[in-house]
């Protein structure tokens, strides 16, 4: 009996073994025939020695995100790879580390000694002095101890709630009232003054006259200015209020209002005695322009005023239309109140609303840190009230967002398609931060296919240099050119851009722009790609046959430029050159053969012309879309953009997918 049970058990065991063997055989045939890999949780799979079947283990290359997918190159299939252990990381791109923010550009005295006594020698001497001073400044920065703590500029300001000033004090302070913390909603400024009598002018700016003629003019300007926005530059006019009693080109008394940013005036709002249309937008419910008697008939106005008061006293219910005169008269006292509303500024004169001016993109109330009154006016007193008592410091910390997300991507160990050098000044903290938060966030820059860097010279103030160095070390996107900044030496920054673009970035093309220029990076790349790769290029808004100005602020002497015409040159706010041209420029500079001219964009035109005549031909490409005077539709670059406009334009580009302006003008 026991023997029979044992034989039955063995028979069942053999059957199960046969079944298991058959199952294993079928599995083997399935795996070998169909080449199905085993995939494990740790990311390994079976890979054959020929790269396709079963065999040794290889770690699969898994991209963690879409961003990595766009930036990383596809790996090659492994051939005869050994067993990889899980601790080994994914293959990464090689990164080049740039340790110092200091430019390697060097300017020594031999450059000056080797140059003849022509019109270019003056700028060379200035450059020599500026580099010597800059060398001293940089040594001081290197020795600066971190234990010093926060610099003086970090101190918070305590601002008065109100300010009052007599006419004599106003004159003694340069006809300027300083508003330390700017304005806030509800702030108001009252001016008591008296327009002067009209006087003769042979060259009025508000009218055109023939030679020898004169015009009787009486006008004054009240301006809210951004005194602390940018040191060393003309302050922006946040509000320009200009009553013209006599002398306007229209022949009528008018009030003109406007804004101005970096010497670029916006579109004026003129009030000439006609009330704004009913369908025109209002400002806090107020019309932009009120009506007044256009012929300034004071006799009629006095009769109308008397009739108005009489009808009011007798209780007459019928509405009486009353025509007010122009709110300002020669040698007659007035009381003007400027108030800050929710949507704009409002001006009342002698208790009556006169004009309202809507806020324009690019400025905030806190930017209005000064009130000036100039022209044909005697000021009796100025009062400012409901002012903000606290304000973020005007130090760099007010503007800089020290977040890792704004840091520059590292250089990769390969050439870049385009290097963008951005000219900036040491104290332009807000401008640089706005660019970091706007067009420098473009995917072409984030992926390091395009590289952008700010080129900044040293400032005369040590505290600014200290903060600049901290900013450069944190963000990694600033190249400090070691000379003391000077407008006539901007050309040295351009040379530094050429040197950096060729020898550090290994760029195929180099672009130069300013820190108030918004750049559509993808549009610029498309414009470059239209040119064959074997051609040298010079792309921008190119000027042909321009003549030097011999008078005025931008005057050029015959010693500086003896010729009647400039060579063809692209406007400075945005242009592109090929790497061959940039290499030629720095090579000439290194040999002390490069002529330097104080106008940076003209200098570039001069250098390109020399390259064009001595080397292979250059393809000049002119486009008005490299806008010189502001923003235009479908721009490639837009100049004179404030930090707030930069952010606005970037938001529009991201949300709408179209290049649209954020005009404050």
From TrEMBL:
The keyword Transmembrane helix applies. Its cofactor is Mn(2+). It is a single-pass type II membrane protein. The chain crosses the membrane at residues 20-40. It is found in: Golgi apparatus membrane. Residues 175-385 form the Galectin domain. Its main location: Golgi. CDD domains: GLECT (cd00070). PROSITE patterns: GALECTIN (PS51304). InterPro entries: ConA-like_dom_sf (IPR013320), Galectin_CRD (IPR001079), Glyco_trans_31 (IPR002659). It holds the Pfam family Galactosyl_T. It comes from the Eukaryota. Keywords: Glycosyltransferase, Golgi apparatus, Manganese, Membrane, Signal-anchor, Transferase, Transmembrane, Transmembrane helix. Pathway: Protein modification; protein glycosylation. Belongs to the glycosyltransferase 31 family. This is Hydroxyproline O-galactosyltransferase galt6. The gene is GALT6_2.
């Amino acid at each position: 009996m026991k023997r029979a049970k044992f034989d039955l058990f063995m028979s069942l065991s053999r059957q199960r073994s046969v079944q298991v063997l058959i199952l294993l055989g079928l599995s083997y045939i399935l795996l070998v025939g169909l080449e199905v890999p085993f995939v494990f949780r740790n990311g390994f799979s079976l890979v054959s020695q020929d790269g396709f079947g079963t065999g040794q283990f290889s770690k699969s290359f898994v991209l963690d995100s879409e961003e990595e997918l766009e930036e990383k190159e596809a790996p090659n299939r492994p051939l005869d790879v050994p067993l990889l252990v899980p601790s080994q990381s994914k293959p990464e791109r090689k990164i080049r580390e740039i340790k110092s923010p200091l430019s390697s550009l060097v300017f020594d005295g031999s450059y000056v000694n080797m140059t003849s006594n022509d019109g270019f020698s003056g700028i060379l001497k200035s450059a020599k002095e500026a580099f010597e001073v800059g060398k001293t400044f940089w040594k001081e920065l290197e020795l600066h101890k971190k234990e010093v703590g926060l610099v003086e500029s970090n101190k918070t300001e305590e601002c008065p709630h109100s300010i009052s000033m007599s006419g004599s004090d106003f004159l003694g302070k340069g006809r300027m009232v300083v508003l330390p913390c700017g304005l806030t909603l509800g702030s108001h400024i009252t001016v008591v003054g008296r327009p002067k009598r009209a006087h003769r002018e042979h060259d009025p700016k508000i009218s055109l006259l023939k030679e020898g003629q004169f015009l009787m003019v009486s006008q004054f300007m009240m301006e809210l200015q951004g005194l602390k926005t940018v040191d060393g530059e003309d302050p922006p006019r946040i509000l320009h209020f200009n009553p013209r009693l006599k002398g306007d080109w229209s022949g009528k008394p008018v009030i003109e209002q406007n804004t101005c940013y970096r010497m670029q005036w916006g579109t004026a709002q003129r009030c000439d005695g006609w009330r704004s249309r009913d369908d025109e937008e209002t400002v806090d419910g107020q019309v932009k322009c009120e009506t007044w008697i256009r012929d300034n008939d004071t006799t009629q106005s006095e009769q109308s005023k008397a009739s108005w008061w009489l009808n009011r006293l007798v209780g007459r219910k019928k509405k009486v239309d009353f025509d007010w005169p122009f709110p300002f008269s020669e040698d007659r006292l007035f009381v003007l109140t400027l108030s800050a509303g929710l949507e704009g500024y409002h001006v009342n004169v002698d208790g009556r609303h006169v004009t309202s001016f809507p806020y324009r993109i690019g400025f905030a109330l806190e930017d209005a840190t000064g009130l000036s009154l100039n022209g044909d006016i005697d000021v009796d007193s100025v009062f400012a009230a409901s002012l903000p008592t606290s304000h973020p410091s005007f130090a760099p910390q007010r503007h800089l967002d020290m977040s890792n997300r704004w840091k520059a991507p590292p250089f990769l160990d390969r050439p870049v398609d385009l290097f963008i050098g951005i000219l900036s000044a040491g104290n332009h903290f807000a401008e640089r931060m706005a660019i970091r938060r706007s067009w420098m966030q473009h995917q072409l820059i984030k992926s390091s296919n395009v590289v952008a860097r700010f080129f900044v010279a040293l400032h005369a103030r040590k505290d600014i240099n200290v903060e600049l160095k901290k900013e450069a070390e944190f963000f990694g996107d600033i190249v400090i050119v070691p000379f003391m900044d000077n407008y006539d030496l901007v050309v040295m920054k351009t040379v530094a851009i050429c040197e950096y673009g060729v020898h550090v970035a290994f760029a195929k093309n180099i672009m130069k722009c300013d820190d108030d220029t918004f750049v559509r990076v993808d549009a610029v790349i498309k414009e470059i790609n239209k040119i064959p790769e074997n051609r040298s290029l010079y792309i921008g808004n190119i000027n042909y046959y321009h003549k030097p100005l011999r008078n005025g602020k931008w005057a050029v002497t015959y010693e500086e430029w003896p010729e009647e015409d400039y060579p063809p040159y692209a406007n400075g706010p945005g242009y592109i050159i090929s790497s061959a041209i940039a290499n030629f420029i720095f090579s000439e500079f290194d040999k002390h053969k490069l002529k330097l001219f104080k106008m940076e964009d003209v200098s570039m035109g001069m250098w390109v012309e020399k390259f064009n005549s001595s080397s292979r031909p250059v393809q000049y490409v002119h486009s008005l879309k490299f806008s010189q005077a502001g923003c235009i539709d479908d721009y490639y670059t837009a100049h004179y953009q404030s930090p707030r406009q930069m952010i606005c334009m970037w938001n529009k580009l991201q949300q709408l997918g179209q290049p649209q302006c954020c005009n404050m003008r």
